[in-house]
Amino acid sequence: MTTPDTSTRPASDLPEASPAAATPQRARWQTTLRQVRWSPVAASLALLFFATALLIPSLLATYSPTEVDFARALQTPSWHHWFGTDESGRDLYSRVIYGTRESLLIGVGAAGLALALAVPLGAVAALSGRFLAATIDRLIETIFAFPLLLLALLVVAILGPSALTGVIAIGLSTAPGYARMVRGQILAAKHAGYVEAALALGHSRWQIIRQHILPNAMRPLVAIFTMAIGQSIVWASGLAFLGLGVAPPSPEWGALLDAGRSYVFQAPWLTFIPGLVILVLALSATVLGKHIQTHLESGD
What we know:
mainly alpha; MetI-like fold; 0% strand
């Protein structure tokens, strides 16, 4: 039996390759892209940009943040000045980039102080005797009952406005909320099955706390800390907008908001763009923190 000679057959008569067989790699890529959660990816890229601005601002900035040129004051955003210029002719984009360091340090410092106060308070409230636990609970609830802004304003009024005061004010104001979260995490861990198993095996109370309760209860703190940074930056910007934070000519984002409100109708970008940058950072930190928390809870 002879095989048909396909070398002389026209191309239209040759069997076509199956599209599914011809593009298995493309199908795998499409499946992978559909499985990617783009919100955490976008949040991570945004935080990477802000981290670069924190560590190497000169790599991203196009002008000096302090260079004054009144001839180019209040210029609208353009290719030469991406975010426009302020009332002194300073490049707003460069000032936002250089202001990242101060804004992020305030946010990280305030979040760190809040958790440093919240963890021992929440742990003692959850693990101590009934009288001490009730006393700490009432203290936390009393502080938590105060409006956070009012408490922060009280601290600033006592210590005076500065970056350090902002860290202290925001840290003290937000600590009670995080203490309640820590207390809830520890109480949930106390009633978990592995704790009951450890008790049945004869482990001591301190050994159970150190080896089982605290490690499992503290895992969500990574996500909580990430979200606390975004919240602290929003609070710090709010204090600066009220004139109770870092004073001009600092390029801290809240100070930029405060300086731009005098030109909100004449040059709205001076207020809108720093506010948008604060929103992007806070939203990115919250999205990434939620993503981390989801993975920790699922055990991934």
